[in-house]
Write a structure and sequence with these properties.
The protein is mostly helical and 79 residues long. The chain has one helix spanning 2-20. It contains one helix and no strands.
Length: 79
């Protein structure tokens, strides 16, 4: 007797959580020329933080190779 009631409550809670979930924002497509990375400056100060903080302007030493490469031949997955 208790199992069907628990199953109904579980299904109802799943539907309710699906309906109340936060909506995902559509992400903008970024090309490498438009990429906004962090600041790279050797003369800027290094922040000293205590606790949990949100850093908006961080100082990055190395970011890597940002670019695109065209795929010439893609034959993967075929036998």
């Amino acid at each position: 007797m208790a199992f069907p009631l628990m199953a109904i409550v579980w299904v109802g809670l799943q539907v309710l959580s699906f309906l109340l979930r936060p909506k995902m924002a559509e992400q903008a497509k970024v090309t490498p020329g438009e990429l906004e990375g962090t600041l790279v400056d050797s003369s800027s100060d290094v922040p000293v933080l205590f606790g949990t903080r949100l850093l908006t302007k961080t100082n990055c030493v190395w970011y890597g190779d940002v670019g695109t490469t065209a795929i010439v031949n893609c034959s993967g997955g075929k036998k």
